[in-house]
Predict the 3D structure of the following.
Amino acid sequence: MAGCATTPLESQQNLVLKERAGKFSVVTLAANDDSESVQGSFVWRRLVSGWQLDLQSPLGATLARLTVEPTGATLEQPDAPLRRAASGEDLLAGVLGAKVPLDVLEDWVDGRVIDDDKVTSLKRDRQGRIVSFNQAGWQVMFDRYGESGPARVTAKGQQLGRSVTLRLIAEQPI
C-alpha cells in the first residue's frame, strides 16, 4: 500500500520549484552590419533536478526545450533528433557555434550572481539589488525588479566576431 501512496522518482525530479515566463530576443550584429534576430516567448522552470527552458515563436510554435540536470543537458526541437551534452553551454556551443552563458543564466533570471573571480564591475542600487556587472565576457544589466527578481535582463557579449544582445523580459509575478 505504501508503494501506491508515493510519487514515482521521475515525477519528483521534474517537480517545478519556481517558474518565470515572458518574452525574449537575441540580436546578433556582424562587423559587416549583417544582423540576425530571433524573438518569442519563454518559460523558465527551476526543477528539483535542474532547470528547463521552453522557447516559442511569436505565433506560439515551439522552437525548443532545453533541460539541464547534473547528469547533462538535452535539447528537444520539432523535427530534429534529441541532442545531448555535458552542460547547457556545451550543448548550445555545438548547435550555434558560439558560447551562450546558459550555465549562469539561471542566476541572472533570479537577479543574482555567483560570487566568483569571473564577476567584475558589480554595481548595486540603493536597495542593495544588483543592477549591472561583467561575467565571463558578458556585460549584464538587471532592471525593473519585482517580487520574483528583475523584470528585464539584458546581456551583451562578443561571439565569433559578432556582437550578441540577449534580452529577457519576465512577467511579474509568476
